[in-house]
Amino acid sequence: MSSGNNSQQQPSLVGGHAEYIKGAAETAIGGVTGSNAWTSSGEQAKAHAVESMKSASEQRDPSSQGFGKFEKRLGQVTGCEGMVKEGEASKKPE
């Protein structure tokens, strides 16, 4: 297989965060309705999202990618430690 198609399969931080939010919503729906299927699906989606974000983070060059202070602040507001770390790593000097 050629490595030219790898860009379609590489994990992304944005996609990982979106999947995590989806999983959190499913978990919440499962909690409210008492549905173990929704809760389980949500937990699986969140776990997969965390792995995707970790992988994307490892492949990211903080000196040329990232949103710096904005990403750090958003991570602090949402409670996402990974975003805080990524924001700190990509923060541009003032």
Task: List its salient traits.
94 residues; mainly alpha; 4 helices; disordered N terminus
Describe the protein in words.
With 94 residues, the protein is an all-alpha fold. Helices cover 69% and strands 0% of the residues. The protein has four helices and no strands. Helix 3 runs antiparallel to helix 4. The termini are far apart.
Explain briefly what this protein structure is:
This protein has helices at 13-33, 36-58, 68-78, 81-90.
Structural category is: mainly alpha
Overall strand count = 0
The backbone outline, from C-alpha atoms, is elongated
- Could you describe the largest sheet, including whether it forms a barrel? none
CA radius of gyration is: 16 Å
Helix count from the secondary structure assignment:
4
- Residues in helices, as a percent range: 55-70%
Q: Approximately what portion of the residues adopt beta-strand conformation? A: under 5%
Task: Give the CA-CA distance, first to last residue.
Answer: 44 Å
Order of helices and strands: HHHH
Low-confidence runs (pLDDT<50, min 5 residues)? 1-8
User: What would the average pLDDT be, to the nearest integer?
Assistant: 79
Layout: helices, strands, pairs:
Elements: H1 13-33, H2 36-58, H3 68-78, H4 81-90
Helix pairs in contact: 1-2, 3-4
